Amino acid sequence: MLNNIEKKLIVIAGPTAIGKTDLAFQIAKQLNCAIISADSRQVFKETTIGTAKPSSAYLNEIPHYFINHVSIHQPYNAGLFGQEALNKINYLHQTNNYVIIVGGSGLYINAVLHGLDEFIEVPIQIRENLNATYKTHGLVYLQEQLKKLDPIYFKKIDIQNPQRMLRALEIITHTNKSYSSFLNKKQLQHPFKIQSYVLETDRENLYNRINVRVDCMINEGIVEEAQQLFQYKHCNALNTVGYKELFQYFDKNISIDQAILLIKQHTRQYAKRQITWFTHQNTFTKVLIDDAKKALELVVKQVNS
RNA sequence: GGUACCUUAGCUCAGUCGGUAGAGCAACAGACUGAAAAUCUGUGUGUCCCUGGUUCGAUUCCUGGAGGUACCA
Predict the structure, then answer these.
(1) For each of chain A's 305 residues, which pLDDT tens digit applies?
(2) In the structure, how far is the CA atom of residue A52 from the C1' atom of nucleotide B48, in angstroms?
(3) Residue A191 in contact with residue A90, Cβ under 8 Å?
(4) DSSP label of A44
């Protein structure tokens, strides 16, 4: 009973290549607890080198969850992750006071920390039909539809963003109710304490780390991995930095050198988007990663206090 | 060596019938409730190669030069 107060979820977030995996591993070793990965691409079995998964040495030493969790051929999303991860956290808390969640997918982390509204799962056919409608009728048609079917949400969302419009329309089509009628989320009450950290360093250092990491991926064989997956390039899971540029190369649209430059460039842009997201989550404590030992001590000390 | 064409933003290139200039990409900033490594939005960037001439005014027209590309020799 009293124990519940001591249960903690330690959140480690930050941009790609900043060193989340290493830090989380070291913390897990010190606290003797498991790690939950909040990474929208590491969940897939087939993508390993290109998603910079933890090494097998790490995976063997500390239990990691939601890595190699599903196949690229299965649909997976933030809603599913939120539910599954929360179940897993509660399960792990039965035998351990600590659980670490680490990753760079902001929406996935938010789905766990704050929850998402409950929507009914929409059959894939509806999305495909709507995608076809968008292709033939264009964005303005989607805007007109949404304005008619859900004027409240229409005022709220970015009507230039087709993905957002299509998401709202698929819910409306499937349920015959407005999208906004589902937006009634209650504050999630967790039976554990949350301590969240976002890793930081200066931009130049981060960009150097990204460049080095991409070169490593090339040496480790990302080209061969992508070649194997080329036949499945239509999968959403493979609409991913590192793979999509190599698919361009396989299609003979660009050279391998161009592909490598583009992977670096697109990874930098992705990292910037993550920084924008996490710096606006003001519940995160900032941790400078430049001195890894100091960062580790700081987090462990705060968790134990 | 000759002829033709080219030289404009970090890159690729539009354009100005003479009134000092844009697009895409990059860069930077932002948004984001089931595609989130996805998707979307905003903001600039300049000796318009140099030189002289014509002109009220030249990046634009003319002379000469430099560099590049193609073809001919």
Answers:
(1) 445 568 999 999 999 999 999 999 999 999 999 999 999 999 999 999 999 999 999 999 999 999 999 999 999 999 999 999 999 999 999 999 999 999 999 999 999 999 999 998 899 999 999 999 999 999 999 999 999 999 999 999 999 999 999 999 999 999 999 999 999 877 788 999 999 999 999 999 999 999 999 999 999 999 999 999 999 999 999 999 999 999 999 999 889 999 999 999 999 999 999 999 999 988 899 999 999 999 999 999 999 88
(2) 46
(3) yes
(4) B
State the DSSP code for A123.
P
**What is the distance in angstroms between the CA of the first residue and the CA of the last residue of chain A?**
20
- Give the neighbor-by-neighbor strand order of the sheet with A8-13: A64-65, A34-37, A98-102, A8-13, A193-200, A285-288
Q: Do A206 and A17 form a contact (C-beta atoms < 8 A)? A: yes
Which DSSP symbol is given to A17? T
Query: Integer distance in angstroms from CA A294 to C1' B33?
Result: 36
Nucleotides of B under 7 A from a protein CB: 26-41
How far is A86 from A93, CA to CA, in rounded Å?
A: 11
Under a CB-based contact definition with an 8 Å cutoff, are residues A40 and A112 in contact? Answer: no
**Minimum-distance residue to B35 (CA–C1'):** A236
Between CA A72 and CA A275 the distance in angstroms is 27
Which nucleotide's C1' sits nearest to the alpha carbon of A270? Answer: B37
Task: Give the separation between CA A84 and CA A61, rounded to whole angstroms.
Answer: 23
Number of residues that this document lists for chain A: 305
Q: Which amino acid makes up residue A32?
A: N
Q: How far is the CA of A252 from the C1' of B73 (A)?
A: 39
